[in-house]
Specification:
290 residues; mainly alpha
Amino acid sequence: MNHNQEALTARTAPILFVLLWSTGFIGTKYVVNNADPLTYLAIRMAIVVGLMAIIAAIARPKWPDSTGIAHSAVAGILVHGFYLGGTAIAIAHSIPAGLSALIPGLQPILTSTIANRWLGEKVTPVQWAGFVLGLGGVVMILHNRPMTGEAGLGWLASVVSLISITLGTLYQRRYCNQIDWRSGNLVQYVSVTIFFAIGAFLFEDRVVHWTREFMLALGWLAVALSIGSIGLLYWLIRHAAATSVASLFYLVPAVTALMAYLLFGEKLDALAIAGMGMCAAAVFVVNRRF
């Protein structure tokens, strides 16, 4: 890849990542209307395992050693397992799609705190100001959204999502950065398929309605999210500081809220629009080199 291609990738990858990642909340709303959340996730991950196996068979990447396999499995359970499981359970318990992005959207604050101590990354006062600005934007976007449904379990699931995606991205950066993404992802998806299958058999009736809506959303989530957006996330983790990557998650609630407004009629008022602007400003502040 020459310098111009690298520059173009560096500019477009964050934008594409935010757009794709935000559709995950929308797609999940469609699939959980037709299937139990852990059951749907087990099916989704099994599809992804098949796709990644084909990619690995064609590319023939270097396989990690036993330690690398163990690290990949842990990263997969964190990034895919508890994060996706928490998000799906929250939406399945009537938390609106836009609102379900709120708590995971607080990831930059938690990431910056941990990265400062665990990865040795220096977080400047200006970056801290950007994190606070982004937090304010997230609150403004989702300030007046309904808190209906089985809120207790839904919010607990969202908190689990926040913690797991934060620890997962940091774990991936520290222990899996040197593992080829094709072999590493395949290990991760095999691990998380087993994780979700066990959860589905233990806690669910494994109901699935194979409607057109379910199958289309499932296909999108398996290909565009589990392969496309995760690939972009891991590329960003390799090429940027953890705090800079985490700041992109401030944009996800804003983009999700806009999509939810267009698709489901969820409220998007002037204060929420202003919050979207604050989130964009926060990403600029955190990533700018002063």
